[in-house]
Amino acid sequence: MSDNKKYYDWIANWVSNQKSIWGLCKQGATEMQKQFPELIVVPGWVSTIAGDRDHWWCETVDSEILDPTASQFKEMQIGIFGYRKFQPGDEVRVGKCMNCGEEIWLPVQSLTERPEFPPEVSDCCCSSDCEYELMLIEGGDGTCPIAIDNEQDLLEYEEKLLIDEEALLHD
């Protein structure tokens, strides 16, 4: 640890300057890497007694973990038992179903690119059944008023909104 005292000193100072470090793992790791360019920012998960949680931390070239926000888990009394780096193909949470509220998890190749949604899952619903139920709520007829795939669809949708708005004004 003495070789890396500068890192631990930076972490202690950074933490003391935050109102809370809850949810600041990516920010903390990124800021630490800016201060120490030799470090690598690592996305992944921490294993805790409450289960695996999304997390970001830094590592040295020797794979020593330097985690600016590790103390948040101690404060929650759930501790960290291990770290697991993101690997292409890992399942990650990509959203929440707008119909039932369940989380949507998909295998992804990158954390920086929009994931490919399989046909049975949309980017707003966890299943085709939930998407259909949502469309019934939104459009009333099983057609989603916000399903816009191209510029022509957008123009037609905007025109429909104007027509509907005019009809409301004249009723």
User: What is the count of structural domains?
Assistant: 2
Rough outline = elongated
Strand count: 6
Question: Which structural class should the secondary elements be placed in?
Answer: alpha+beta
Uncertain regions spanning at least 5 consecutive residues = none
Q: Kindly report how far apart the N and C termini lie.
A: 75 Å
Q: Which sequence of SSEs, written as H and E, runs from N to C?
A: HHEEEHEEEHH
Helix content: 25-40%
What's the topology here?
Elements: H1 5-16, H2 25-35, E1 40-48, E2 51-59, E3 65-66, H3 71-75, E4 82-85, E5 91-96, E6 103-107, H4 128-139, H5 151-170
Antiparallel strand pairs: 1-2, 1-4, 2-3, 5-6
Written description of the protein model:
This protein has 171 residues and is of the alpha+beta class. It folds into 2 domains: 2-85, no CATH class; 91-170, no CATH class. It is built from 5 helices and 6 strands, in the order ααβββαβββαα. The chain has helices at 5-16, 25-35, 71-75, 128-139, 151-170; strands at 40-48, 51-59, 65-66, 82-85, 91-96, 103-107. The strands form 2 sheets. The chain has a 4-stranded antiparallel sheet, with helices on one face. A two-stranded antiparallel ribbon has the order 5-6. The mean pLDDT is 79.
